[in-house]
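Re: export button greyed out
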Amino acid sequence: MKVGNGDLGPKPLKFTMPTYLIHFAQFHMEFRLPELDSLAILEAVELRYDPAAYSNDSPFMLVEIPNDDDARKLVKRSILVKHIVRLWAESPTLEDILETIKDARELHAPYLKSSFKFIVAAFGYTIELDEQISRIERFSFLPFEGPIDLKNPDVTFAYYEDYGKPSAQEGAVREANKPKRVFFGVLLASGNRGVVTTYDLKKRKYLGTTSMDAELSLVMANQALVRLGSFVLDPFVGTGSFLMTCAHFGAFTMGADIDGRQIRGKDRRNIQSNAVQYGLTGRVLDNVVCDLAHHPWRIQPVWDAIVCDPPYGVRAGAKKIGNNPKIKPPPTVLKSNGEPRYPQTVPYEMNDVIVDLIDFAATFLVPGGRLVYWLPTVTDEYVPEDVPIHPKFKLVANSEQNFGKWARRLITMEKLRGDEELVGVDLERGAEPATAVPAHSKFRTKYFECVRGVENL
Amino acid sequence: MRLITHNMLQCHAKGCDPSQSYPLELKEVQLESLDAEYSEDFIRRLIPKLDWNVLVHTAFALGVAELPKELPDVQDEAFLRKVHQVALETRVKEAQMVCNGCGHVYPIKDGVPNMLLQDNEV
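Workaround output, generated via the alternate export path:
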Protein backbone atom coordinates (compact mmCIF):
# COMPACT_ATOMS: atom_id res chain seq x y z
CA MET A 1 0.00 0.00 0.00
CA LYS A 2 1.27 3.44 -0.83
CA VAL A 3 1.50 6.17 1.75
CA GLY A 4 0.39 9.63 0.69
CA ASN A 5 0.21 8.84 -3.00
CA GLY A 6 0.03 12.50 -3.91
CA ASP A 7 -3.60 12.05 -4.92
CA LEU A 8 -4.83 14.15 -2.03
CA GLY A 9 -8.03 15.93 -1.31
CA PRO A 10 -11.60 15.21 -2.24
CA LYS A 11 -12.39 13.66 -5.56
CA PRO A 12 -15.56 14.75 -7.32
CA LEU A 13 -18.63 12.56 -7.27
CA LYS A 14 -18.93 10.18 -10.20
CA PHE A 15 -22.34 8.74 -9.30
CA THR A 16 -21.05 5.33 -10.29
CA MET A 17 -20.42 4.04 -6.78
CA PRO A 18 -22.85 3.37 -3.93
CA THR A 19 -23.74 6.32 -1.73
CA TYR A 20 -23.08 6.28 2.00
CA LEU A 21 -24.07 8.66 4.75
CA ILE A 22 -21.41 9.69 7.22
CA HIS A 23 -22.65 10.81 10.62
CA PHE A 24 -19.88 12.89 12.21
CA ALA A 25 -19.50 13.83 15.82
CA GLN A 26 -20.35 17.49 16.25
CA PHE A 27 -16.90 18.30 17.64
CA HIS A 28 -13.74 19.73 16.08
CA MET A 29 -15.64 20.36 12.87
CA GLU A 30 -12.69 21.71 10.87
CA PHE A 31 -10.84 18.47 11.51
CA ARG A 32 -13.50 16.13 10.18
CA LEU A 33 -12.78 16.22 6.44
CA PRO A 34 -8.98 16.23 6.81
CA GLU A 35 -9.25 13.17 9.03
CA LEU A 36 -11.54 11.43 6.56
CA ASP A 37 -9.21 12.24 3.66
CA SER A 38 -6.26 10.88 5.64
CA LEU A 39 -8.09 7.67 6.47
CA ALA A 40 -8.99 7.18 2.80
CA ILE A 41 -5.26 7.30 1.97
CA LEU A 42 -4.31 5.14 4.95
CA GLU A 43 -6.86 2.43 4.14
CA ALA A 44 -6.52 2.81 0.34
CA VAL A 45 -10.25 3.43 -0.04
CA GLU A 46 -11.56 5.31 -3.07
CA LEU A 47 -13.58 8.13 -1.49
CA ARG A 48 -15.58 10.72 -3.39
CA TYR A 49 -17.65 13.61 -2.12
CA ASP A 50 -18.70 17.10 -3.02
CA PRO A 51 -16.84 19.48 -0.68
CA ALA A 52 -19.38 22.21 -1.47
CA ALA A 53 -22.15 20.05 0.00
CA TYR A 54 -20.26 19.67 3.27
CA SER A 55 -20.88 22.09 6.13
CA ASN A 56 -19.32 22.42 9.55
CA ASP A 57 -22.86 23.14 10.72
CA SER A 58 -24.16 19.67 9.93
CA PRO A 59 -22.97 16.28 11.13
CA PHE A 60 -24.22 14.58 7.95
CA MET A 61 -22.39 14.15 4.67
CA LEU A 62 -22.99 11.94 1.65
CA VAL A 63 -20.00 10.18 0.11
CA GLU A 64 -19.39 7.60 -2.59
CA ILE A 65 -17.37 4.51 -1.72
CA PRO A 66 -16.96 1.34 -3.83
CA ASN A 67 -18.53 -1.11 -1.36
CA ASP A 68 -19.54 -1.86 2.23
CA ASP A 69 -16.19 -3.36 3.19
CA ASP A 70 -14.38 -0.21 2.12
CA ALA A 71 -16.92 1.89 4.03
CA ARG A 72 -16.21 -0.09 7.20
CA LYS A 73 -12.44 0.18 6.65
CA LEU A 74 -12.67 3.92 6.09
CA VAL A 75 -14.21 4.70 9.48
CA LYS A 76 -12.75 2.02 11.73
CA ARG A 77 -9.98 4.32 13.01
CA SER A 78 -11.93 7.54 12.77
CA ILE A 79 -12.15 9.66 15.89
CA LEU A 80 -14.60 12.15 14.40
CA VAL A 81 -17.00 9.78 12.61
CA LYS A 82 -19.80 8.31 14.70
CA HIS A 83 -21.42 6.03 12.12
CA ILE A 84 -21.46 5.15 8.46
CA VAL A 85 -24.74 4.16 6.83
CA ARG A 86 -25.42 2.63 3.40
CA LEU A 87 -27.96 5.07 2.07
CA TRP A 88 -31.33 3.83 0.87
CA ALA A 89 -32.84 7.26 0.47
CA GLU A 90 -32.29 10.95 1.20
CA SER A 91 -35.20 13.31 0.92
CA PRO A 92 -36.84 16.44 2.38
CA THR A 93 -39.54 14.43 4.16
CA LEU A 94 -40.18 11.06 5.73
CA GLU A 95 -43.10 10.56 3.34
CA ASP A 96 -40.78 10.87 0.33
CA ILE A 97 -38.42 8.32 1.87
CA LEU A 98 -41.23 5.84 2.45
CA GLU A 99 -42.40 6.32 -1.14
CA THR A 100 -38.88 5.79 -2.48
CA ILE A 101 -38.14 2.59 -0.61
CA LYS A 102 -41.49 0.85 -0.41
CA ASP A 103 -41.18 -1.02 -3.70
CA ALA A 104 -37.37 -1.27 -3.75
CA ARG A 105 -37.35 -5.06 -3.55
CA GLU A 106 -33.65 -5.35 -4.33
CA LEU A 107 -32.94 -3.28 -1.19
CA HIS A 108 -35.24 -5.37 1.00
CA ALA A 109 -34.12 -8.75 -0.28
CA PRO A 110 -31.05 -9.39 1.94
CA TYR A 111 -32.98 -8.62 5.14
CA LEU A 112 -36.31 -10.44 4.74
CA LYS A 113 -35.48 -13.00 7.45
CA SER A 114 -32.93 -11.02 9.47
CA SER A 115 -33.31 -9.94 13.06
CA PHE A 116 -33.29 -6.17 13.12
CA LYS A 117 -33.62 -2.95 15.04
CA PHE A 118 -34.09 0.71 14.19
CA ILE A 119 -32.21 3.72 15.50
CA VAL A 120 -33.67 7.20 15.18
CA ALA A 121 -31.64 10.34 15.70
CA ALA A 122 -31.88 14.00 14.83
CA PHE A 123 -29.58 16.98 14.59
CA GLY A 124 -30.90 20.32 15.83
CA TYR A 125 -33.98 18.79 17.45
CA THR A 126 -34.68 16.25 20.15
CA ILE A 127 -37.06 13.50 19.07
CA GLU A 128 -38.79 12.25 22.18
CA LEU A 129 -39.10 8.52 22.68
CA ASP A 130 -42.79 8.33 21.74
CA GLU A 131 -42.05 10.33 18.59
CA GLN A 132 -39.21 7.94 17.80
CA ILE A 133 -41.52 4.98 18.05
CA SER A 134 -44.12 6.61 15.83
CA ARG A 135 -41.38 7.29 13.23
CA ILE A 136 -40.29 3.65 13.34
CA GLU A 137 -43.89 2.47 12.96
CA ARG A 138 -44.11 4.32 9.65
CA PHE A 139 -41.67 1.73 8.29
CA SER A 140 -43.81 -1.22 9.35
CA PHE A 141 -44.93 -1.84 5.77
CA LEU A 142 -41.45 -3.15 4.96
CA PRO A 143 -41.64 -6.90 4.35
CA PHE A 144 -39.25 -7.92 7.12
CA GLU A 145 -40.26 -11.16 8.81
CA GLY A 146 -37.33 -11.52 11.19
CA PRO A 147 -37.58 -10.76 14.90
CA ILE A 148 -36.78 -7.42 16.47
CA ASP A 149 -33.54 -7.74 18.42
CA LEU A 150 -32.38 -4.66 20.27
CA LYS A 151 -29.15 -6.19 21.61
CA ASN A 152 -27.54 -8.07 18.78
CA PRO A 153 -29.48 -7.65 15.56
CA ASP A 154 -28.35 -8.93 12.17
CA VAL A 155 -29.08 -5.51 10.74
CA THR A 156 -29.62 -2.02 12.17
CA PHE A 157 -31.64 0.47 10.16
CA ALA A 158 -30.84 4.11 10.77
CA TYR A 159 -33.23 7.01 10.31
CA TYR A 160 -31.91 10.55 10.71
CA GLU A 161 -33.59 13.94 10.62
CA ASP A 162 -31.48 17.04 10.03
CA TYR A 163 -33.10 20.27 11.26
CA GLY A 164 -29.95 22.30 10.72
CA LYS A 165 -27.94 24.19 13.27
CA PRO A 166 -30.25 26.06 15.65
CA SER A 167 -30.03 29.79 15.01
CA ALA A 168 -29.87 32.29 17.83
CA GLN A 169 -33.41 33.57 17.13
CA GLU A 170 -35.00 30.16 17.22
CA GLY A 171 -33.32 29.13 20.42
CA ALA A 172 -33.98 25.50 21.21
CA VAL A 173 -37.57 25.56 20.00
CA ARG A 174 -37.93 23.79 16.65
CA GLU A 175 -41.00 22.80 14.80
CA ALA A 176 -41.49 19.05 15.02
CA ASN A 177 -41.73 17.07 11.80
CA LYS A 178 -40.24 19.88 9.73
CA PRO A 179 -36.66 18.77 9.22
CA LYS A 180 -34.61 20.21 6.37
CA ARG A 181 -33.80 16.72 5.14
CA VAL A 182 -34.05 13.12 6.29
CA PHE A 183 -31.96 10.02 5.63
CA PHE A 184 -32.61 6.30 5.82
CA GLY A 185 -30.29 3.35 5.37
CA VAL A 186 -28.43 0.39 6.85
CA LEU A 187 -26.00 1.14 9.66
CA LEU A 188 -22.74 -0.48 8.64
CA ALA A 189 -20.15 0.50 11.21
CA SER A 190 -19.20 2.92 13.93
CA GLY A 191 -16.05 5.01 14.08
CA ASN A 192 -13.44 4.69 16.78
CA ARG A 193 -14.65 7.24 19.31
CA GLY A 194 -14.50 4.73 22.15
CA VAL A 195 -10.71 4.92 22.12
CA VAL A 196 -10.90 8.55 23.24
CA THR A 197 -11.98 7.29 26.66
CA THR A 198 -8.98 4.96 26.83
CA TYR A 199 -6.57 7.86 26.51
CA ASP A 200 -8.61 10.34 28.58
CA LEU A 201 -6.20 12.61 30.44
CA LYS A 202 -8.25 12.25 33.62
CA LYS A 203 -7.19 8.63 33.80
CA ARG A 204 -3.56 9.13 32.75
CA LYS A 205 -1.11 8.67 35.58
CA TYR A 206 1.65 11.00 34.39
CA LEU A 207 0.63 14.38 33.04
CA GLY A 208 2.09 17.82 32.47
CA THR A 209 0.58 21.24 31.95
CA THR A 210 0.93 20.81 28.20
CA SER A 211 -0.43 17.28 27.77
CA MET A 212 -2.63 17.22 24.67
CA ASP A 213 -6.20 16.01 25.07
CA ALA A 214 -6.86 12.48 23.90
CA GLU A 215 -9.29 13.21 21.10
CA LEU A 216 -7.02 15.59 19.20
CA SER A 217 -3.92 13.48 19.89
CA LEU A 218 -5.67 10.56 18.21
CA VAL A 219 -6.82 12.70 15.28
CA MET A 220 -3.17 13.76 14.86
CA ALA A 221 -2.08 10.13 14.60
CA ASN A 222 -4.62 9.68 11.82
CA GLN A 223 -3.45 12.87 10.10
CA ALA A 224 0.11 11.51 10.29
CA LEU A 225 -0.98 8.30 8.47
CA VAL A 226 0.51 6.32 11.32
CA ARG A 227 0.14 2.56 10.92
CA LEU A 228 1.65 -0.70 12.10
CA GLY A 229 5.42 -0.41 11.78
CA SER A 230 5.56 3.37 11.25
CA PHE A 231 8.49 5.17 12.84
CA VAL A 232 7.45 8.42 14.52
CA LEU A 233 9.27 11.23 16.34
CA ASP A 234 7.91 13.93 18.62
CA PRO A 235 10.75 16.50 18.88
CA PHE A 236 8.92 18.41 21.66
CA VAL A 237 7.84 15.35 23.54
CA GLY A 238 6.95 16.86 26.93
CA THR A 239 5.10 14.15 28.80
CA GLY A 240 4.68 12.05 25.66
CA SER A 241 0.99 12.31 24.68
CA PHE A 242 1.66 11.69 21.00
CA LEU A 243 4.02 8.79 21.64
CA MET A 244 1.05 6.98 23.14
CA THR A 245 -1.60 7.75 20.54
CA CYS A 246 0.73 7.04 17.62
CA ALA A 247 1.89 3.78 19.25
CA HIS A 248 -1.77 2.90 19.77
CA PHE A 249 -2.12 2.72 15.98
CA GLY A 250 0.98 0.57 15.65
CA ALA A 251 3.83 3.07 15.35
CA PHE A 252 7.22 2.72 16.99
CA THR A 253 7.73 6.08 18.65
CA MET A 254 10.60 8.23 19.91
CA GLY A 255 10.65 11.55 21.65
CA ALA A 256 13.06 14.39 22.28
CA ASP A 257 12.89 17.42 24.52
CA ILE A 258 15.25 20.08 25.78
CA ASP A 259 13.73 19.52 29.23
CA GLY A 260 14.77 16.14 30.56
CA ARG A 261 12.76 16.57 33.73
CA GLN A 262 9.53 15.99 31.80
CA ILE A 263 10.92 12.80 30.24
CA ARG A 264 12.18 11.40 33.52
CA GLY A 265 9.20 12.60 35.59
CA LYS A 266 9.31 11.81 39.26
CA ASP A 267 8.09 9.33 41.82
CA ARG A 268 8.33 6.67 39.13
CA ARG A 269 5.71 8.45 37.07
CA ASN A 270 7.07 9.31 33.65
CA ILE A 271 6.65 8.67 29.95
CA GLN A 272 7.70 5.07 30.41
CA SER A 273 5.13 4.51 33.16
CA ASN A 274 2.41 5.88 30.87
CA ALA A 275 3.52 3.37 28.23
CA VAL A 276 3.13 0.67 30.87
CA GLN A 277 -0.33 1.97 31.78
CA TYR A 278 -1.47 1.68 28.16
CA GLY A 279 0.30 -1.58 27.39
CA LEU A 280 2.48 0.13 24.77
CA THR A 281 5.99 -0.55 26.13
CA GLY A 282 6.71 -2.71 23.09
CA ARG A 283 6.40 0.27 20.76
CA VAL A 284 7.19 3.38 22.81
CA LEU A 285 10.96 3.39 22.37
CA ASP A 286 13.49 5.99 23.52
CA ASN A 287 13.46 9.58 24.61
CA VAL A 288 16.46 11.82 24.16
CA VAL A 289 17.25 15.09 25.93
CA CYS A 290 18.26 17.51 23.19
CA ASP A 291 17.55 20.86 21.62
CA LEU A 292 15.88 21.01 18.22
CA ALA A 293 18.00 24.05 17.35
CA HIS A 294 21.21 22.07 18.02
CA HIS A 295 20.08 18.51 17.54
CA PRO A 296 22.25 15.38 17.60
CA TRP A 297 20.55 13.19 15.01
CA ARG A 298 22.63 11.60 12.27
CA ILE A 299 21.50 13.20 9.04
CA GLN A 300 19.22 10.90 7.04
CA PRO A 301 15.54 10.52 6.16
CA VAL A 302 14.45 8.13 8.88
CA TRP A 303 11.01 8.96 10.33
CA ASP A 304 7.68 8.27 8.66
CA ALA A 305 6.00 11.00 10.65
CA ILE A 306 6.90 13.89 12.94
CA VAL A 307 4.02 14.74 15.26
CA CYS A 308 4.27 17.54 17.80
CA ASP A 309 2.95 20.51 19.66
CA PRO A 310 5.80 23.04 19.53
CA PRO A 311 6.37 25.02 22.73
CA TYR A 312 4.80 28.41 22.34
CA GLY A 313 6.00 29.68 25.61
CA VAL A 314 2.81 30.35 27.51
CA ARG A 315 3.04 27.48 29.91
CA ALA A 316 6.10 25.64 28.66
CA GLY A 317 8.81 28.22 28.06
CA ALA A 318 10.18 28.06 24.55
CA LYS A 319 13.93 28.12 24.79
CA LYS A 320 17.04 26.93 23.07
CA ILE A 321 20.65 26.61 24.09
CA GLY A 322 22.55 29.84 23.75
CA ASN A 323 24.76 32.27 25.57
CA ASN A 324 22.60 34.51 27.68
CA PRO A 325 24.45 37.70 28.58
CA LYS A 326 22.08 38.28 31.47
CA ILE A 327 23.30 35.18 33.26
CA LYS A 328 26.74 34.89 34.80
CA PRO A 329 28.40 31.75 33.41
CA PRO A 330 29.07 29.01 35.96
CA PRO A 331 32.73 28.34 36.76
CA THR A 332 32.59 24.76 35.44
CA VAL A 333 30.36 22.76 33.14
CA LEU A 334 30.06 19.96 35.67
CA LYS A 335 27.96 19.95 38.81
CA SER A 336 29.48 18.70 42.06
CA ASN A 337 28.10 15.21 41.35
CA GLY A 338 29.94 15.09 38.04
CA GLU A 339 26.88 15.58 35.86
CA PRO A 340 26.86 18.32 33.24
CA ARG A 341 25.19 21.56 34.21
CA TYR A 342 22.06 22.58 32.38
CA PRO A 343 23.32 24.93 29.68
CA GLN A 344 22.36 28.56 29.43
CA THR A 345 19.33 29.11 27.24
CA VAL A 346 17.86 31.99 25.32
CA PRO A 347 14.22 32.53 24.31
CA TYR A 348 13.21 30.59 21.20
CA GLU A 349 10.92 32.83 19.18
CA MET A 350 7.78 31.07 17.90
CA ASN A 351 8.47 31.78 14.25
CA ASP A 352 12.04 30.43 14.59
CA VAL A 353 10.73 27.29 16.27
CA ILE A 354 8.36 26.65 13.36
CA VAL A 355 10.96 27.39 10.67
CA ASP A 356 13.51 25.10 12.38
CA LEU A 357 10.88 22.39 12.78
CA ILE A 358 9.97 22.41 9.09
CA ASP A 359 13.64 22.40 8.04
CA PHE A 360 14.24 19.51 10.42
CA ALA A 361 11.29 17.61 8.99
CA ALA A 362 12.50 18.29 5.43
CA THR A 363 15.73 16.47 6.29
CA PHE A 364 14.53 13.69 8.56
CA LEU A 365 11.20 12.58 7.09
CA VAL A 366 11.17 9.84 4.50
CA PRO A 367 9.67 10.85 1.14
CA GLY A 368 5.89 10.87 1.53
CA GLY A 369 6.27 11.25 5.31
CA ARG A 370 4.08 13.68 7.18
CA LEU A 371 4.71 16.57 9.56
CA VAL A 372 1.71 17.22 11.82
CA TYR A 373 2.09 20.16 14.20
CA TRP A 374 0.16 22.85 16.05
CA LEU A 375 0.62 26.46 15.03
CA PRO A 376 -0.64 28.87 17.70
CA THR A 377 -1.82 32.18 16.40
CA VAL A 378 -3.69 35.36 17.23
CA THR A 379 -7.19 34.95 15.79
CA ASP A 380 -7.72 38.52 14.51
CA GLU A 381 -4.29 38.80 12.89
CA TYR A 382 -4.10 35.37 11.28
CA VAL A 383 -4.08 35.11 7.50
CA PRO A 384 -3.66 31.81 5.61
CA GLU A 385 -0.33 33.03 4.22
CA ASP A 386 1.07 32.84 7.77
CA VAL A 387 1.39 29.09 7.40
CA PRO A 388 4.97 28.51 6.31
CA ILE A 389 5.51 26.61 3.10
CA HIS A 390 8.62 24.77 2.06
CA PRO A 391 9.75 23.57 -1.38
CA LYS A 392 10.01 20.00 -0.14
CA PHE A 393 6.46 19.91 1.24
CA LYS A 394 2.89 20.22 0.19
CA LEU A 395 0.34 21.55 2.63
CA VAL A 396 -2.30 18.89 3.20
CA ALA A 397 -4.57 20.37 5.86
CA ASN A 398 -4.98 23.39 8.13
CA SER A 399 -7.69 23.10 10.79
CA GLU A 400 -8.44 25.64 13.48
CA GLN A 401 -9.24 25.04 17.13
CA ASN A 402 -10.47 28.40 18.31
CA PHE A 403 -10.11 29.72 21.84
CA GLY A 404 -11.49 33.18 21.16
CA LYS A 405 -8.68 35.72 20.90
CA TRP A 406 -6.16 33.07 20.14
CA ALA A 407 -6.35 29.80 18.27
CA ARG A 408 -4.17 26.90 17.39
CA ARG A 409 -4.11 25.38 13.96
CA LEU A 410 -3.29 21.80 13.23
CA ILE A 411 -1.03 21.89 10.18
CA THR A 412 -0.45 18.73 8.15
CA MET A 413 2.35 18.78 5.59
CA GLU A 414 3.57 15.96 3.41
CA LYS A 415 7.14 15.63 2.19
CA LEU A 416 7.26 15.29 -1.56
CA ARG A 417 8.59 12.16 -3.14
CA GLY A 418 11.72 12.40 -5.27
CA ASP A 419 12.59 15.68 -6.90
CA GLU A 420 9.13 16.99 -7.70
CA GLU A 421 9.50 20.25 -5.83
CA LEU A 422 6.39 22.33 -5.26
CA VAL A 423 3.78 20.47 -7.20
CA GLY A 424 0.44 19.92 -5.60
CA VAL A 425 -2.40 21.62 -3.89
CA ASP A 426 -0.64 24.67 -2.49
CA LEU A 427 0.92 25.96 -5.66
CA GLU A 428 -0.82 29.32 -5.67
CA ARG A 429 1.75 30.79 -3.36
CA GLY A 430 4.66 29.23 -5.23
CA ALA A 431 7.97 29.36 -3.45
CA GLU A 432 7.37 32.70 -1.80
CA PRO A 433 8.25 32.88 1.84
CA ALA A 434 5.52 33.05 4.44
CA THR A 435 4.12 36.46 5.33
CA ALA A 436 6.92 38.79 6.37
CA VAL A 437 5.61 39.03 9.93
CA PRO A 438 3.18 36.18 10.57
CA ALA A 439 0.58 36.46 13.32
CA HIS A 440 2.29 33.72 15.32
CA SER A 441 5.59 35.60 15.61
CA LYS A 442 6.22 36.86 19.13
CA PHE A 443 3.19 34.78 20.08
CA ARG A 444 4.08 34.72 23.74
CA THR A 445 4.25 38.50 24.04
CA LYS A 446 0.97 38.92 22.18
CA TYR A 447 -0.67 36.23 24.24
CA PHE A 448 0.11 38.04 27.44
CA GLU A 449 -0.79 41.44 25.97
CA CYS A 450 -4.14 40.64 24.47
CA VAL A 451 -5.25 37.22 25.54
CA ARG A 452 -4.36 37.37 29.20
CA GLY A 453 -7.09 35.95 31.35
CA VAL A 454 -7.93 33.09 29.01
CA GLU A 455 -7.70 30.05 31.20
CA ASN A 456 -8.54 27.31 28.75
CA LEU A 457 -5.25 26.58 27.08
CA MET B 1 18.80 4.18 25.25
CA ARG B 2 18.41 1.31 22.87
CA LEU B 3 21.08 0.53 20.29
CA ILE B 4 18.78 1.77 17.51
CA THR B 5 19.06 5.23 19.08
CA HIS B 6 22.82 4.96 19.58
CA ASN B 7 22.97 4.22 15.86
CA MET B 8 21.18 7.52 15.16
CA LEU B 9 23.07 9.92 17.43
CA GLN B 10 26.20 11.91 16.66
CA CYS B 11 28.26 14.63 18.32
CA HIS B 12 27.07 18.08 17.34
CA ALA B 13 29.43 20.34 19.29
CA LYS B 14 30.64 23.43 17.46
CA GLY B 15 33.97 22.80 15.77
CA CYS B 16 33.86 19.03 16.18
CA ASP B 17 35.42 17.27 13.18
CA PRO B 18 32.45 15.78 11.28
CA SER B 19 34.55 12.78 10.22
CA GLN B 20 35.11 11.93 13.90
CA SER B 21 31.73 12.85 15.37
CA TYR B 22 30.10 9.48 14.67
CA PRO B 23 29.72 6.94 16.17
CA LEU B 24 29.83 7.93 19.80
CA GLU B 25 31.86 5.57 21.95
CA LEU B 26 30.08 3.92 24.88
CA LYS B 27 32.07 3.72 28.11
CA GLU B 28 31.29 2.46 31.61
CA VAL B 29 28.24 0.73 30.22
CA GLN B 30 25.50 -0.86 32.23
CA LEU B 31 23.16 -2.84 29.97
CA GLU B 32 19.69 -4.22 30.42
CA SER B 33 17.39 -6.07 28.08
CA LEU B 34 13.76 -5.29 27.65
CA ASP B 35 10.97 -6.51 25.39
CA ALA B 36 9.91 -4.69 22.27
CA GLU B 37 7.22 -5.72 19.85
CA TYR B 38 8.57 -7.59 16.85
CA SER B 39 7.36 -6.10 13.60
CA GLU B 40 8.83 -7.61 10.46
CA ASP B 41 7.74 -4.60 8.47
CA PHE B 42 9.41 -2.17 10.85
CA ILE B 43 12.68 -4.12 10.98
CA ARG B 44 12.86 -4.58 7.22
CA ARG B 45 12.41 -0.85 6.71
CA LEU B 46 14.81 -0.03 9.54
CA ILE B 47 17.75 -2.08 8.27
CA PRO B 48 18.61 0.17 5.30
CA LYS B 49 18.50 3.18 7.64
CA LEU B 50 20.96 1.68 10.11
CA ASP B 51 24.67 2.26 9.91
CA TRP B 52 25.25 -1.47 9.76
CA ASN B 53 28.96 -1.31 10.55
CA VAL B 54 28.30 0.70 13.67
CA LEU B 55 25.60 -1.68 14.86
CA VAL B 56 27.86 -4.70 14.29
CA HIS B 57 30.76 -3.13 16.14
CA THR B 58 28.66 -1.80 19.02
CA ALA B 59 26.90 -5.13 19.54
CA PHE B 60 30.22 -6.92 19.51
CA ALA B 61 31.99 -4.45 21.80
CA LEU B 62 29.18 -4.68 24.35
CA GLY B 63 29.15 -8.47 24.13
CA VAL B 64 25.51 -8.47 23.05
CA ALA B 65 25.60 -10.44 19.82
CA GLU B 66 27.70 -11.30 16.84
CA LEU B 67 26.12 -9.92 13.72
CA PRO B 68 27.37 -10.67 10.20
CA LYS B 69 29.89 -8.05 9.04
CA GLU B 70 28.09 -7.73 5.73
CA LEU B 71 24.34 -7.43 5.46
CA PRO B 72 23.14 -10.81 4.16
CA ASP B 73 21.41 -10.84 0.78
CA VAL B 74 18.69 -13.12 2.08
CA GLN B 75 17.24 -11.68 5.27
CA ASP B 76 15.27 -14.52 6.82
CA GLU B 77 13.18 -14.32 9.95
CA ALA B 78 15.99 -15.57 12.20
CA PHE B 79 18.18 -12.70 10.97
CA LEU B 80 15.43 -10.09 11.32
CA ARG B 81 14.68 -11.25 14.85
CA LYS B 82 18.35 -10.98 15.72
CA VAL B 83 18.48 -7.38 14.46
CA HIS B 84 15.29 -6.71 16.43
CA GLN B 85 16.85 -8.10 19.57
CA VAL B 86 20.07 -6.11 19.16
CA ALA B 87 18.61 -2.79 18.03
CA LEU B 88 15.35 -2.66 19.97
CA GLU B 89 15.71 -4.93 22.97
CA THR B 90 19.21 -4.02 24.13
CA ARG B 91 19.16 -0.94 26.28
CA VAL B 92 22.02 1.05 27.69
CA LYS B 93 20.87 1.95 31.16
CA GLU B 94 23.90 3.88 32.34
CA ALA B 95 26.95 4.96 30.33
CA GLN B 96 29.18 7.77 29.22
CA MET B 97 28.92 8.42 25.49
CA VAL B 98 32.16 9.95 24.33
CA CYS B 99 32.90 11.74 21.08
CA ASN B 100 36.16 10.54 19.57
CA GLY B 101 36.54 13.86 17.77
CA CYS B 102 36.22 16.51 20.46
CA GLY B 103 35.99 14.43 23.63
CA HIS B 104 32.56 15.71 24.60
CA VAL B 105 30.90 13.35 27.08
CA TYR B 106 27.18 12.73 26.78
CA PRO B 107 25.93 10.92 29.86
CA ILE B 108 23.18 8.30 29.80
CA LYS B 109 21.25 8.10 33.03
CA ASP B 110 18.44 5.69 33.70
CA GLY B 111 18.28 4.96 29.98
CA VAL B 112 17.89 8.58 28.87
CA PRO B 113 20.80 10.11 26.93
CA ASN B 114 21.52 13.75 27.66
CA MET B 115 22.61 15.26 24.35
CA LEU B 116 22.55 18.88 25.47
CA LEU B 117 25.61 20.95 24.68
CA GLN B 118 26.91 23.82 26.77
CA ASP B 119 26.05 27.26 25.46
CA ASN B 120 29.66 27.86 24.42
CA GLU B 121 29.53 24.71 22.24
CA VAL B 122 26.71 25.78 19.95
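The interface with chain A takes residues 1-2, 4-5, 7-12, 22, 34-37, 39, 41-42, 45-46, 49, 51, 88, 105-107, 109-120, 122 of chain B (CB under 8 Å). The button fix ships in the next patch.
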